[in-house]
């Protein structure tokens, strides 16, 4: 008991001392108060424009078509109801509901998407022609420097809107596995699932990025798509619904490649690290080691890897099926090479649900699954095989390339759909079919037994 009262007395004395110290503590300096006043004002400018997004999406990966409700964030950029968010938030959405800061809920339609930069543009459906929405403007992401205060806004974990405060860790981060055509803004402002698509905001109350991804490994690492990328992409989504890109099949390398410890004795251009077989670049005669200094009459340079997305974007914007002159230095001598890029096409294949076989199939796409494209330039593969399910029980699995079904050659998704329907619908008593596949580069013949009825849930 004595120990208790002694401890309580010690705590009480500490509290009195702390109170006295607080009373004598000088008032916060004006700069301190001004900083937080600026941050609060900036939050007030953008927060009303933050949108909570609930899409219903169709997914095929588990071996059957499934409808699933997901959540994400977005931000209004016009009084007319245009909302910017991430592609991965609304990917395969069949319906989209949006909740505004003032409690209004509106359906939204997709105006355009671009998987390569993970951006999407939506349009809220108005309740009357004169309805308007709160919105925020784009800032200058190119003016950011390390240490600038920023706020990440959104609806994490499907909850109501929130704000997290942080700084710019790196204004121009190159993350090659995530985007070929854009740099990233790295921030330590906390980003959680559901923050995707929400705005990253500067102290002027401007959108300087769209939150896209985060990792908790080694501390909070958040990444946002810069406003500079939005300025390039959003008008194209508004006008065309997509970003059409050209493809030459080039793999490029900067002049100073720290990762590979290769440094070229030059200040201009970029280096050809390779080209895909039978691509426009290889057909035109571009070789590994060539240094390209001009494309279509314009100078082009990638000194470090940070410059690579801009170079790739420039090459992607070349007109498809139109000859472009490349000025190349080969063995120290200038050479002019005419390259005719082609239209890049879809970056993702179409999908189909083989319901009775309990598997989903997808078109092979060289940009999405290059390892399968290497084995078969045109065809379909198994995206997912449900477990338990007929396809999985018969030994089929995800990644298998389908070459024939019941003796019919399969080169397109339409071929596979027709073969599936002919087998399933033509003979209700039939429960087995032969499927030829390529797995690991080797051909195999499998017998798919679909006699078992599995629940769809």
Description:
The protein is an alpha+beta fold. It has nine helices and 30 strands. Strand 19 and strand 20 form a beta hairpin.
Number of domains: 4
Roughly how many Å apart are the termini? 62 Å
Average pLDDT level? 88
Multimeric organization: single chain
Look up the CATH topology of the largest domain: Thrombin, subunit H
Supply the number of helical segments.
9
Helix share bin: 10-25%
Spans of at least 5 consecutive residues with low confidence: 1-23
Proportion in β-strands: 35-45%
Q: What top-tier CATH class of the largest domain fits best?
A: Mainly Beta
Fourth-tier CATH superfamily name of the largest domain: Trypsin-like serine proteases
Radius of gyration: 28 Å
Pick out its properties.
single chain, alpha+beta, Thrombin, subunit H, Pdz3 Domain, 4 domains, 21% helix, globular
Please summarize what this structure is.
It is built from nine helices and 30 strands. With 457 residues, it is α+β, with helices and mostly antiparallel strands. Strand 8 and strand 9 form a beta hairpin.
């Amino acid at each position: 008991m004595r120990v208790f009262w002694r401890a309580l007395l010690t705590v009480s004395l500490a509290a009195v001392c702390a109170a006295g110290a607080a009373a004598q503590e000088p008032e916060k300096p004006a700069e301190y108060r001004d900083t937080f006043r600026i941050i609060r004002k900036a939050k007030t400018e953008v927060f009303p424009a933050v949108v909570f997004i609930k899409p219903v999406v169709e997914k095929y990966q588990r071996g059957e078509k499934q409808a699933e409700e997901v959540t994400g964030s977005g931000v209004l950029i016009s009084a007319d109801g245009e909302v910017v968010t991430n592609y991965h938030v609304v990917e395969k959405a069949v319906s989209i509901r949006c909740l505004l800061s003032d409690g209004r809920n509106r359906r939204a339609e997709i105006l355009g998407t671009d998987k390569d930069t993970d951006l999407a543009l939506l349009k809220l459906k108005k309740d009357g022609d004169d309805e308007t929405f709160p919105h925020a403007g784009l800032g200058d992401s190119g003016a950011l420097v390390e240490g600038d205060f920023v706020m990440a806004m959104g609806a994490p974990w499907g909850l109501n809107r929130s704000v997290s405060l942080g700084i710019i860790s790196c204004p121009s981060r190159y993350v090659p596995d995530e985007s070929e055509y854009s740099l990233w803004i790295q921030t330590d402002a906390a980003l959680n699932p559901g923050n995707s698509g929400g705005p990253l905001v500067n102290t002027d109350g401007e959108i300087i990025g769209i939150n896209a991804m985060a990792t908790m490994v080694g501390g909070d690492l958040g990444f946002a798509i810069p406003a500079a990328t939005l300025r390039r992409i959003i008008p194209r989504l508004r006008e065309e619904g997509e970003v059409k890109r050209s493809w030459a099949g080039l793999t490029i390398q900067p002049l100073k490649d720290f990762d590979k410890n290769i440094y070229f004795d030059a200040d201009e251009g970029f280096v050809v690290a390779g080209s895909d077989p039978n691509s426009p670049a290889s057909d035109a005669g571009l070789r590994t080691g060539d240094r390209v200094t001009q494309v279509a009459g314009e100078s082009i340079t990638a000194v470090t890897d940070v410059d690579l997305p801009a170079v790739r974007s420039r090459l992607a914007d070349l007109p498809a099926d139109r000859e472009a002159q490349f000025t190349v230095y080969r063995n120290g001598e200038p050479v002019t090479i005419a390259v005719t890029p082609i239209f890049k096409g879809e970056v993702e294949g179409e999908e189909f649900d083989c319901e009775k076989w309990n598997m989903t199939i997808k078109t092979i796409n060289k940009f999405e699954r290059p390892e399968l494209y290497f084995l078969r330039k045109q065809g379909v593969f198994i995206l997912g095989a449900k477990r338990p399910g007929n396809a999985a029980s018969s030994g089929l699995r995800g990644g298998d390339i389908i070459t024939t079904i019941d003796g019919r050659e399969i080169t397109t998704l339409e071929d596979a759909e027709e073969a599936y329907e002919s087998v399933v619908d033509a003979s209700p008593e039939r429960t087995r079919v032969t499927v030829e596949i390529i797995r690991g580069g080797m051909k195999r013949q499998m017998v798919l037994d679909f006699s078992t009825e599995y629940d769809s849930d």
